[in-house]
Amino acid sequence: MKINLISDTVTKPSQGMLKAMLDAEVGDDVFKEDPTVNKLENIIAQTFGMESALFFPSGTMANQTAINLHTNPGDQLICDKYAHVYNYEGGGVSFNSGVSCKLINGERGMFTNKQVLESINPPDFYHSPKTSLVCVENTTNKGGGACWDLDEFKKIKQTCISNNLSFHLDGARIWNAIVKTEKKPKDFGLLFDSISVCLSKGLGCPSGSVLIGSKELINKAIRIRKILGGGMRQVGYLAACGVYALENNIERLSEDHLKAKEIESTLSKLSFIKKVEKVETNIVIFEIKANISSELFLNILNGKGVELISMGDNKLRLVTHLDYSNEMHKSFLKILNDLKF
Ligand SMILES: *Cc1c(COP(=O)(O)O)cnc(C)c1O
What we know:
Strand content: 15-25%
Bound molecules: pyridoxal-5'-phosphate
């Protein structure tokens, strides 16, 4: 049995999702004539209580578009040192928008309003870059699936308003945070100038993200998406997966969270594990003892059909997801318990 835990992006469309694709009514989305894409965008905008939404091929493109719209070349954005926009988008912040990042040394990818205040460059001090945007991530990826406290977001929002900064949420796994913290999408919609959400992570779609914001922002986003090469034609086949996933795959995220919790509990009892980071959602980050190389550890697991990824510093990451079945889970826990070093 192959057990792939490298990411929650590895899922394949279920029979139900494939049927939704077959049944989808499509049109040319570059002319905004794809009824299924329009439907998905409307549902997501309404779900978050925001005016407008736009479908993107990837979360990276949705984030990069938001950053481009909220900044001018030479500006600086504020984000955590673990942020996806800084670490994992190929340097797009500088490539696409000519912007630098002021990194905050946060906790598990999260920071405080006080740290934001300390990171804003004085607007009249023309020697330093102009701060124009704060980017946060919920749940945090490199931070191990941690969920932000909504009250901290509210404080940062006030800081953004008083300092004329835009506020962007990289919500690649916002659904996990919503299910875990029992918040409503509208709680987030109220606070941010833009939110990107992924359909191809926990929700199990083959591809696709959506950027949400005001009508004015999204009207501008269409041009940036076109420039980045993200204008697609009969993409309703992918949007149909999104509509299907919103109806069928959100509540069940709690099952992924439960499995991750059980893996945490198993790992924390093993003698060769140094530390397991607190599991909140579907990401488990753990550190193995220094006398075992992570390469060896990964190779042994690979030999047993299990795939995880290394995060450097002897840290490993695994992510539970829709296609990680109960049977695989049982088998994986047994493999872990049987490991000997
Ligand atoms: C996956 C992810 C993205 C977007 O990634 P794509 O692979 O481009 O869809 C953005 N932010 C975070 C935190 C992610 O985990």
